[in-house]
Amino acid sequence: MVVIQSDFRSAVQMAGKFGYFRQNQLIASRCLSRAAWLRPSSRALPSWPTYLRWRVSVRAFSTPGTEAQVKIVTDKPSLCTADELHYVSVSNSDWKLALWRYNPPPQAPSRNHPLLLLSGVGTNAIGYDLSPDSSFARHMSGQGFDTWVLEVRGAGLSMQESDPRKIEQSANAMSEKIEATANTATNEAFSSEQQSTITPRSNSSAESNISAAKEEKGIATAWDESKLVTKLTETFMLLSERLSGFLSEGQSKIMSAKLLDQISKLLEDSQLFDRFTEIRGKLTNLLEAGENYAIAGQIRDLSERLVNIIDDGQRSVSPPLFDLQERVLATIEDFQKQIELIVKYDWDFDHYLEEDVPAVMEYIMAQTRPRDGKLLAVGHSMGGILLYAMLARCGYEGADSRLAAVVTLASSLDYTSSNSALKLLLPLADPAQALNVPAVPLGVLLAAAYPLSTRPPYVLSWLNNLISAEGMMHPELLKKLIMNNFCTIPAKLLLQLTTAFKEGGLCDRSGTLLYKDHIAKSDIPILALAGDKDLICPPEAVYETVKLIPEHLVTYKVFGEPKGPHYAHYDLVGGRLAVEQVYPCIAQFLSSHDQLLSS
Question: Which of 279, 521, 568, 587 lies most in the core, judged by the most C-beta atoms within 10 Å?
């Protein structure tokens, strides 16, 4: 081995002002059964390891092709600064993965292998192409590498679209939405700050409006009881069926109890509470029974009885429970939104590893046809973790990874020995908590926090240090990175990633395969880079994985000097000195292995 030394809560509250349920950069995913995820592909792929054969079936929609399965995108979205935008379809789903392509210029040296770039968790391709002067993707294409940047499901311009004819329209709509969301977040953050200096107006007008509305509506206004019965029945049936495989039995119990607790709070201190408690007990027993074909009628009967209780509270309880039916309906609708989020954001790290990355690798090699059937890969943060996991799993199975050489930037399979700021994610290690927060709108949160980190009194300035060391990134590029590069992250993904902070390091979703136990079985050359002031993946975390790799296969380098300049998490990709220091280091490493395999 060669060693070369070289307040978040405020943001959450602000983000809440403009809507937790706003979808930042993700088209809602369609409910897929667990059986569909695990159904093996009928296509024979003998050269791929077992776990990569599950769903590697590719249909592409790309800008330059003319084949029958190709969609020509003549109007490339403004957000995409690459030469071409391709879409790779993953079988057994409607996901179309965005793939940004950077073509080498005619004067660049000829290369044997294409280059795949993988981004970090909750990020898109923009981080690799911030500007013409700060573009790792453009730099590598200039070195002769046919460079491709993958946006995994849920990131950037990747989308769920079953109709190929709508790809171009959807891509442009998503591009506009991403840019608009960033602008809206900034404007609303400034607006909320200004409102704190404005004297609140009297509540009398608002109260009079409410009073007038009540008089107009009347306490005894008729309401659609059947609608509430139907919503209750549908919700309870959905929970009894455990969301078609999305929830375990234990998780379904947690969600059922949560909904009933919310309804219970609306009836506290009323004469109806005992009646509700009786029905709650019967509902709970039915939901736990799980005999869906036998309990549907009983659930509807109990839902009707529950609605009757609500109606009694509205009409006969003294004092009346004003607007109780509306509040219960709102509670159920909010609960249904949470269930929808669980379904929409239902993927984890292994979905990327077993489905997204293999599909894209196959597509790139079909387009570029490398002589040895291999490609080069660079992964930043989670992108590097994906490459480590792929090498470990192929080593475990004795399979060919189809990688010629790998570069990881600020990545590790084991963070237990470090003081990584990502330990803030550990509360999500509780599956119940993951159900309460099905997805984390990282893009919205960072966009809301950005004004507070860059303007007096700089209450959240420490957030910038997680991304870039002081003075290492141009302010406009840092703003672009924060406002446009991040998206919503499923709790299931975070839940699996938190295993990297437990004994044994990152493991697969079953918890039986510890990736670090098999990384030493890989025979692929690796360049592992770290930043000296990286608070997310500190050098000691990077080294925790590096030390497991055979010495003749790994080169480890830490960028940054004791007296500066320093490198934080994103400086390895977009820092002002990366073009001079980091990019050439990576290009030299990949060039040497590209030449070795082509000689």
Answer: 568
